[in-house]
């Protein structure tokens, strides 16, 4: 039962993180187009966001899942070993993970694949989605203990 609950917590955290990351990517790209004077209808914004979510799922979604799995495993170990508050540690681990994913893509692939992360604000926003994923993971941990 504990393992199943851990898997559900992880999947919820990953889904929240990936969905926010994909949505933020889409909105940063759309903001760039709008900044160039292109009018984009709400329905087109929604369609692009959904298409990006689905299109990024097998690649960016997998990268995020692997990163969060490693980060949350290390954060859990640190939390138990040094009695660090998990509510603080998991969001920090998620933030650092998403930041590292994006910082590593540039030198490895010589391109920032997530266009919404090409600027400082976009990069920070993508990292913040990791923070949200970590918060979700930690929050459901606390709900089970209550």
From TrEMBL:
The keyword Transmembrane applies. The keyword Transmembrane applies. Keywords: Membrane, Transmembrane, Transmembrane helix. The chain crosses the membrane at residues 55-75, 87-105, 111-138. This is Major facilitator superfamily (MFS) profile domain-containing protein. It comes from Bowmanella yangjiangensis.
């Amino acid at each position: 039962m504990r393992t199943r609950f851990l898997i559900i917590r992880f999947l919820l955290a990953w889904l929240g993180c990936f969905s926010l990351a994909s949505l933020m990517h889409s909105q940063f790209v759309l903001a760039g187009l709008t900044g160039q004077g292109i009018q984009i209808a709400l329905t087109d914004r929604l369609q692009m966001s959904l298409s990006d979510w689905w299109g990024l799922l097998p690649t960016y979604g997998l990268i995020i899942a692997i990163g969060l799995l490693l980060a949350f495993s290390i954060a859990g170990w640190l939390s138990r070993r040094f009695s660090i508050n998990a509510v603080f540690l998991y969001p920090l681990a998620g933030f650092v993970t998403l930041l590292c994913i994006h910082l590593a893509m540039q030198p490895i692939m010589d391109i920032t694949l997530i266009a919404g992360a090409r600027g400082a604000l976009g990069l920070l926003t993508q990292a913040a989605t990791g923070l949200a994923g970590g918060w979700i993971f930690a929050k459901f941990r606390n709900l089970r203990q209550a």
